[in-house]
Structures are given as C-alpha cells and as structure tokens.
Amino acid sequence: AATKLASAEKLMYFCTDQLGLEQDFEQKQMPDGKLPVDGFLLCVDVSRGMNRNFDEQLKFVSNLYNQLAKTKKPVVVVLTKCDEGVERYIRDAHAFALGKKNLQVVETSARSNVNVELAFSTLVQLVDKSRGKAKIIPYFEALKQQSQQIAAAKDKYEWLVSRIVKSHHELWPNVSRKMQPAPEYQDYVYLEGTQKAKKLFLQHVQRLKQEHIERRRKVYLALLPQALDALVPDLDEIDHLSRAKAEKLLEAKPDFLKWFVVLEETPWDATSHVDNVDNERIPFDLLETPAAEQLYEAHLEKLRNERKRAEMRRAFRENLETSPFVTPGKPWEEARSFIMNEDFYLWLEESVYMDIYGKHQKQLIDKAKEDFQELLLEYSELFYELELDAKPSKEKMGVIQEVLGEEQRFKALQKLQAERDALVLKHIHFVYHPTKETCPSCAACVDARVEQLLGSRFTRQHRNNPSADPNVDRINLVILGKDGLARELANEIRALCTNDDKYVIEGKMYELALRPIEGNVRLPVNAFQTPTFQPHGCLCLYNSKESLSYVVESIEKSRESTVGRRDGHLAQLPLTLILVNKRGGGGDAGGETLQSLIQQGQQIASKLQCVFLDPASAGIGYGRNINEKQIGQVLKGLLDAKRNLNLVVGSTPGLKDASDGADLRLVMCLMCGDPVSADEVLLPILQAQACRPAPGGGAAVL
C-alpha cells in the first residue's frame, strides 16, 4: 500500500519471464531510483482454488482495501480468472464493492485477454480526470465482442496465408517474414499471438499436402485400369487367383515396371515419390488400398462381362445360321421376334445384334446372288433369242421369271426383286458383251487377273503419293428424275456393273454407289447428301416439261440448303442434264415437241451451268435411253472433277507434236523380264517426234 518506492538503478520488470533473460527484453530503469504510485489495481481471484476459502480471501481483500483507502489514491477492483470464475464468488465480490464508495469493478481474464486493457484505462481515468470515462463491460459481453473480433481477424489472416502460401513445402520463418508488413498478420498476432498464427499456417500447409496427395491418388487410380488391361487382359489367367497371387503375377510381367514402381519405404504418400510429378508410375503398395481393390474387382467383372457378351454374340450368330426364318433380304423388324430371347436383350444393345444381323444378311445375299448367277448360266437358252443390245420386253421378262420361278435359287431373292431383275439384265449384257468388265466372276476373271499381275510388276508414281485421296476408287452418283426415271436408269447402270457394284473406267475398277431420288429433296429421305453418302455428281433426267420443272426446282432447293454452310459441296456439285425417252419406250412424239424439249433443256443447262446431253448429240434416236458409252463418259467426267485433273474424255490415236497445244500421249508395252531404262525408251521417241516445250515456256509432261 506504499505510495512511494525507492530503488536506485533498478530495472523495471514487465513480467516474470524477464528474470534471468534481461538482455532479451527492453531495459528501462526506475527514474532517479524513485517511483511515485498514483493508483492501485486490487486483484481478486474468483476461480475455484485448491484448499482456499473464498470468504477468508474476501476478508483479506477487505483489510487490504482499508489500507489502500488511507492513501487517498484511486482504487479499481479487478476480478481475475473470470474464464474459470465461480458465479457466487463474482457476485460476492460485486457485493463487497457496492459497500464501498465509488469503488469500480472490472471482470477480466488474462488468459483470454478480456478487459485487461480496460482495467488499466479505468484506473488511468480516475487518476487523470481530464480523460474520458471508460465504459465498463461485463466479462461475457466483452468476451463475445472479442470473439467476433478474433474471428474476423482470423478470416483475414487465413485469406492472407492462402494467398501467399501455394506449396506444402513452404516454411514458417520465410512465410512469417513475408507476412509481417501485412495488417491482416499484425492484427491477428496482436489478438491471438504468434504461436496461434503459426498453428494456422501449419494447418494450411497440411491441407495443401493432403490435397496434393489426393490429386496424385486420383491420377494413379485413373491409370490403374489401363495398367490392368495391359498386363492381365486374359480372364483365365487371374479369375481364380487370390489378391496376393494376382500381385505376384503382375510383378512377373515384362512390362510391370512400365506401369508400377516398388518403393523402398511405405506408405507411398509419406515418401518423396508423391512429389515426383514427372513419374506417373503407380506405387505398388497403392494396390492394398480399398479404392484400388475395387478397381481390381471391377477389372475382373469387366472381363467376365466381355466374355459373356462374346458368348452372346456367338450364340446369336449360331442362331442366325440355324434359323429357317432368316432369309436373304428379310428386314430386321420381321426377323427379330423369331431370333431374339431375353438373354440376348440382357447382355447387349439391340444395335449390336442389328449390326451382326446386317453382316449375316450381306453374306446370305452375296451367296444367294452367286447361286442365282449360276442358275442363269444353267438356263442360257432363255437369252439366245434376244436382239443385240436390246432391253428385254415385259413379256420376255415374264417368260424368264416363269421358267425360273420354281427354282429355289430364284425364290431365295424373293424379297430383293429389284436386285434380282438387275442381275438378269446384267447377265443379258454379259451374254452379248462377254468382256472382263461384264464377267460375272468380277475380279476373279482371268482377263482382269492378267492385267493385275502385269500391273503389279511396275511401280506407279501415284501409289507413292501421300496426298492421294484414299476414297479415289469410289464414285457416289445421284440420279434425279420423277415418275420412275431415276429408278429405271439406276437399274440399267447396275446391269452394266459387276456383281459387287463395280464399274470399269479406262481399265480400272471403281466402286459405284447410286442414289435415285424422285421426291421432295427437302425431306431427309430424298436428300442429296447423308452422313454416309457424299455425292460426287448428279444425273438430271427429264422427258417432259413437268419432269424438267421438277429437276430445276430440286436443284434450286438443294443449293439453297447449302447457303451459309462451310463445306458448300452441293453448290459446286457437277451436274449433267439428260433428255431421255418417253416412258414405255414410245418414239411417237413429233419433231416439234422433241425440238422444244431440247431447246428448253439447253436453256436450263446454261442457267445451271451444267453439261447437256440430248439424243441427237449422242447419235441415238429419240425413244432410247442413255447408252453405255454416254454413261462411261459421264462417269469419267465426274471422276476427273473429283480428282481435280484436266483429263480428256476419249482417246487420241497416235502421237502428236507438243507444239500444237495437244497433250502428248505415249503408249508403252508392258514387257516381262528385265526392267527397261526410261531413257532407253523415252528419249528416242521424243527425239523422233521433235518434242518441244509447250507454248508459254511450260514443259511437256509425260
């Protein structure tokens, strides 16, 4: 209770931690060795103490207060340890203060740092009346305010840590130096201290590490199914193995180290391998985790299901081969109810069965066509009486069908009547034009085989051209015409093709795909272009003003549909407008009518910027359709347009001088035996023909 202290040259102490460590703290000496006391903080412990009677303690406090009161100095009662305070003790302490004149009480907790500063500021105000009076806040209200303040400061500090610390390898000394200037760091350390700030930092680093480990785990688990597919793709090899034996089997595989790494230390997430992002091999001990075990079981189940699906496909194919209800040309919708059962639907999608059925149907149809072709050869006498190049009449076709009708090979194509009729027409064409192009044996024809064998002895430049179009051996042709014109011409063209729809142009065989269109081209079923059909050209047929109008409208609609599209393919589609005979083969139209149709066709061809073919230009009379020569010319023109080459339709006999602007055509014989030098053959011919550079300085090209 003394008001004057004297201790010359003594250091002022702030806390007991200074004892023995004075050099580590700020050093201040008592001024002149004397220190006047201006006020007192009377501290009362309100926590529950061991072997301590609060009533006796309060008596001691009362006696102490009486001594302080004699000094006439301000006194503030400070209740300490309120974070563990006993409610009765606090209430009794307040009652004690109420019995004294102007004695103020401040509830504090040094551990929680609640109201400590308020206790001193209250005493300062009593010493210096000029200062504003401090508002005394009860402990729990002050604690609530401080908790809110700490929470806000903590959020800001955690935001600062997340912005600065991006790697789980960061260390506290380096990070704390970076954060010291930031107010978020300063405020939180002031409220909670450096140790709690460090603790939050370590929690953030640990969280970053766990996130990194989880990312690596996901990478490894995503790679594990691929590793199992590569190392153990055979179900019989692992189906009955235990997990331990399966792991031994994996280790014995030659490519094991390509997919896995065996670490000296485990678990993998506690080793340096987790930070080696360049090495994506799976830690082998990861297989012991539940997630990896599930993936292994899923791999087994996948192999079992694949085997079951393969068995279902095999059983379905066997069912197709033995079912009497599956005949050539029968649609899937008609055959499905006879060949499908619940097990089939359980294991595979219907689209898979449809694909298998489609392939089986192709085999059936090819075999039926082959048998039918054999049947036609057996009945050769049916075709002897036809006129050369004549199309059989309906009566003759009726006779042929009547004679062959009882044959099973004829009935087998009952659902493919159009293709059966095309085979008959093709056979008739072969009877009167027995060449390798019309031979029913197609590529197996001896004449064709000889050419292929000779051609294989020589290297052709275009085969080594990497930019060559892989689809160059296919021609997609649209045939446009109403009232049956398109279908009739399509059948006639198919009759000129081989059994597998191949057509020979200049000695080379091309696959010919025809798409006859006779309806509204804006409907998907009549569209020029489909996902599986990219047209290379279009034959436009007409035999009347109405059919010509249909052609013009269809072309305009088709071109309108390509406006704004990137490819613009249909807008540049090569067109050929053809005037064909009246239906029924009549040549009864007058010359004036024929001339009118020709003039209209020429005008439309000029408008559409396309080729026009009429009976007069082809050298045939009105009443006959486009002949084989015209078809060959049209297809060669489309092939040239497709290849973007400037080829001349037809042939130029002999050799011409390059100076007259014509192409120099060189015919060479294929000779068996030693290869002949190009110089030995070409140079004498060129010298003999006096070949000069083309006009304009261009070189003559062979």
TrEMBL record:
Residues 469-647 form the PG1 pseudoGTPase domain. One of its GO terms (biological process) is Rho protein signal transduction. It comes from the Eukaryota. Its main location: other. PROSITE patterns: FF (PS51676), PG1 (PS51852), PG2 (PS51853). Residues 665-702 form the PG2 pseudoGTPase domain. This is RHG35 protein. The gene is Arhgap35.
